[in-house]
């Protein structure tokens, strides 16, 4: 029986490399029993609008783009009573979700084959405030501006190196933020230079949590808070702990929770899946337990 597939394409992602293999990818989908309809985005919010308006008409919704495109698609599908299965063809720069799922990056045909042979798995979606969502992370503090502050032309030209260079430029701007976090099992309060709630083993393509620490469909998100070490030596120990995946540093707090309420003394800038999330003195995040199934 022929199935209907909605393919949402962000033509700006991944330097437009998807186009070279698009014909072969469509042939593979056709051979796999899918009748595919293409939707091209022209700006921010288009993927959400397409998914919300037309997603219910399809058996499967697939997007070609970066993590931001996937995030938009999921936000649209969250508006449906029942979401179709979701496929992801990662063509971005950091591709944290692809790293977590083990999907081939910047390989349109390879990703299509994974969709055709893969299995739909329950996937949690994050809630940000009353009416916003995130696919894998909401964060504040050091380096969280990197994804949306890096100019698009640099992303296209330098790829992941653009993130590294932009992150290095922010070293001089690191500051601690007094934060109170109320979560499922209690309260944490202190001065932190980074905080996040996530559902991913990869953050910005640099930091990786252990696979055993993260379950993508268990209804729990990982709450990560990082304290200011207060010295160059302490910062070195912190970096070593993160890169070695020990996470045993006294400066790192990692918890699992369904909800978290962050309160600050002043407005603090947030990012959602690498895009600007606005400034907030109080923000409530939650985990929506497996409202979609992601194919991998």
The number of helical segments is 9
Q: N-to-C SSE series? A: EHEHEHEHHEEEHHHEEEEEHEEE
Count of discrete structural domains: 2
What structural class do the secondary elements suggest?
Answer: alpha+beta
CATH architecture of the largest domain: Sandwich
Give the low-pLDDT segments: 154-169
Mean pLDDT: 88
Which helices and strands, and how do they pair?
Layout: E1 3-9, H1 22-31, E2 34-40, H2 46-54, E3 60-65, H3 67-77, E4 85-90, H4 96-101, H5 108-117, E5 120-128, E6 132-134, E7 137-141, H6 146-149, H7 152-158, H8 160-169, E8 177-183, E9 186-198, E10 202-203, E11 207-208, E12 221-227, H9 232-243, E13 252-257, E14 259-272, E15 275-295
Structure commentary:
The protein has 296 residues and is an alpha+beta fold. The chain has 2 domains: 3-118, Probable inorganic polyphosphate/atp-NAD kinase, domain 1 (Rossmann fold), CATH 3.40.50.10330; 134-288, Tumour Suppressor Smad4 (Sandwich). Helices cover 27% and strands 39% of the residues. The protein is built from 9 helices and 15 strands. Strands 5, 6, 7, 8, 9, 12, 13, 14 and 15 form a 9-stranded antiparallel β-sheet that branches. A 4-stranded parallel β-sheet has the order 2-1-3-4, sandwiched between helices. Strands 10-11 form a two-stranded antiparallel ribbon. A hairpin with a 2-residue loop joins β14 (259-272) and β15. α7 (152-158) packs across α8 (160-169). Residues 154-169 have low confidence and may be disordered.
